[in-house]
TrEMBL record:
Pfam families: Pyridoxal_deC (PF00282). Its cofactor is pyridoxal 5'-phosphate. Keywords: Decarboxylase, Lyase, Pyridoxal phosphate. InterPro entries: Aromatic_deC, PyrdxlP-dep_de-COase, PyrdxlP-dep_Trfase, PyrdxlP-dep_Trfase_major, PyrdxlP-dep_Trfase_small. It comes from Sphaerisporangium corydalis. It comes from the Bacteria. This is Pyridoxal phosphate-dependent decarboxylase family protein. Gene3D superfamilies: Aspartate Aminotransferase, domain 1 (3.90.1150.10), Type I PLP-dependent aspartate aminotransferase-like (Major domain) (3.40.640.10). The keyword Transport does not apply. Belongs to the group II decarboxylase family. PANTHER family: GROUP II PYRIDOXAL-5-PHOSPHATE DECARBOXYLASE (PTHR11999), MIP05841P (PTHR11999:SF70).
């Protein structure tokens, strides 16, 4: 068994097994509980010692399918509302399989003109979809965390150059600390990016005007005036507790006034730009110096998928490229080597599922989906407002609904514990999946609706299961 060369004829059959499993799995996905507790024992089948001889292709793929289909979290189904987790459109999922089938060494044009060209095309399509100028540079990343890292690394390079330093070559030694300002909506992944970049996650100076974290633009204006030299502003387009937005246009004006860099984290919120109904939420994003977003959330492309855009298209190359290895293309290679434009080197052809889904559904497909999810969020918000024992904690702006259980007569100091227990029970129940957060000191549910499969039935089920569990836990 052991040498894969002896099994070379099994590849197509193995893929056929996956394709055969796909139909029944996808067919059952809309009705499966998000979680099945009895699947626990299946995970043990993953375990054991590394075998000497190997079990062979077909046996191993069969085993992986058995365990995987049974034990997976069915988060790509329509009722996974925790965090902000999208599914996979049919075209994106098939595009992802094509990516695996072709197994392109993506990063250098030389190793895959196909992947390189596809990346260029989808980046242009995405800029068009989001109303970003075509002149922006960009790169596909594994996630929004990496897209934030990419944008903030470019910011750091720009900031270093303003101090006469080349941070890519020489690092940060001898430079002052890079000033970073944001409102309270800043996502932990932007801090993580700063911590990886050597700027420190606590470099962020948070200027909020309330306990929800809304940015204090006037205070930021003053703070920027007091900083001698360039600074970086992080604008947040889509905050994870309520889906609220920083006023990007005002932040862009501040950046202009003070010669600062504006980085926008639009992991899911950038998709507001896909519909005229919601695009006012991201007005001004086209004035940002760098923009980060996710493909595996609202684009409904399989993990791992994100993208970063940078206004100055020459900056990513200075930030991530020019290693001078003799076997790599030189910096003046006329072909695009995405290797040099982002934090990764070798990577999968993650442009292909993006290409497939954008080609399949077009602008109107994504507009309709964003509008439907907005409608569904408003529907849930309406149900919450009508219910005497539920309390909506923030206006529904996009696709997130932040609320808590608040039955009459229960004192405020008991509500957090009560809602925490509802969250735990809800996750254990598994019919719908939504957990808790802390919003302005209150324990709250904050379901997010970004999956293409989700319909009114799923939203109504979410509301009724929350009601049922709350009634049980509350007594
Ligand atoms: C999800 C999210 C991120 C991080 O995205 P990953 O894809 O998990 O890396 C960053 N910012 C915001 C606002 C998010 O919602």
């Amino acid at each position: 068994m052991s040498d894969p060369l002896n099994e070379r004829d099994t590849a197509a059959a193995a893929l056929g097994m996956v394709a055969e499993a796909a139909g029944p799995y996808l067919g059952s996905l809309p009705d499966l509980p998000v979680h099945d507790h009895d699947a626990g024992g299946l995970l043990d089948l993953l375990d054991g010692e590394l075998s000497e001889d190997g079990a062979g292709t077909l046996d191993s793929v069969a085993q992986l399918l058995r365990v995987g289909v049974g034990a997976a979290t069915h988060s790509s189904g329509p009722r996974f509302f925790h965090f902000i987790v999208g599914g996979s459109t049919p075209a994106a999922q098939a595009g992802d399989w094509v990516t695996s089938l072709l197994d392109q060494a993506t990063g250098l044009w030389l190793t895959s003109p196909l992947a390189s060209r596809a990346e260029t095309v989808v980046l242009r399509w995405l800029k068009d979809l989001f109303g970003l100028p075509r002149s922006y540079g960009g790169v596909l990343t594994p996630s929004a965390t990496f897209a934030n890292l990419t944008g903030l690394a470019c910011a750091r390079q720009w900031w270093g150059e303003r101090h006469g330093a080349d941070v890519a070559a020489d690092g940060l030694a001898g430079l002052p600390r890079m000033p970073v300002l944001s409102g309270g909506y800043i996502h932990p992944s932007s801090r993580k990016a700063l911590q990886v970049l050597g700027c420190g996650r606590d470099a962020v100076r948070v200027l909020s005007r309330d306990d929800a974290g809304r940015v204090d633009v006037a205070a930021m204006d003053r703070a920027l005036g007091e900083i001698a030299g360039p600074a970086v502003i992080v604008g947040n387009a889509g905050e994870v507790n309520t889906g609220d937005f920083d006023p990007l246009d005002e932040l862009a004006t501040l950046a202009e006034r003070h010669g600062a860099w504006l980085h926008v984290d639009g992991a899911f919120g950038l998709f507001a730009a896909t519909t005229p109904r919601l695009s006012h939420l991201v007005a001004g994003v086209e004035r940002a110096h760098s923009v980060a977003a996710d493909g595996h959330k609202w684009l409904n492309v399989p993990y791992e998928s994100g993208f970063a855009f940078v206004r100055d298209p020459a900056l990513p190359g200075r930030t991530f490229g020019a290693w001078g290895a003799p076997y790599l293309p030189s910096a003046d290679d006329p072909n695009i080597n995405y290797n040099f434009l982002g934090p990764e080197s070798s990577r999968r052809a993650r442009a292909l599922p993006i290409w497939a889904t954008l080609r399949a559904y077009g602008r109107s497909g994504y507009r309709e989906m964003a509008e439907r999810h907005h409608d569904l969020a408003l529907r849930l918000g309406g149900i919450v407002e009508q219910a005497p024992d539920l309390e909506l904690l923030a206006p529904v702006r996009l696709c997130v609904v932040c609320f808590r259980y608040r039955p009459p007569g229960v004192p405020e100091e008991e509500l957090n514990e009560l809602n925490r227990r509802i969250g735990v029970e809800l996750l254990a129940d598994g019919r719908v999946f939504a957990g808790t957060t802390t919003y302005r000191g209150m324990t709250a549910l904050r379901p997010a609706i970004v999956n293409w499969r989700t319909t009114e039935t799923d939203i109504d089920l979410l509301a009724s299961v929350v009601g049922e569990i709350a009634a049980r836990v509350g007594t």
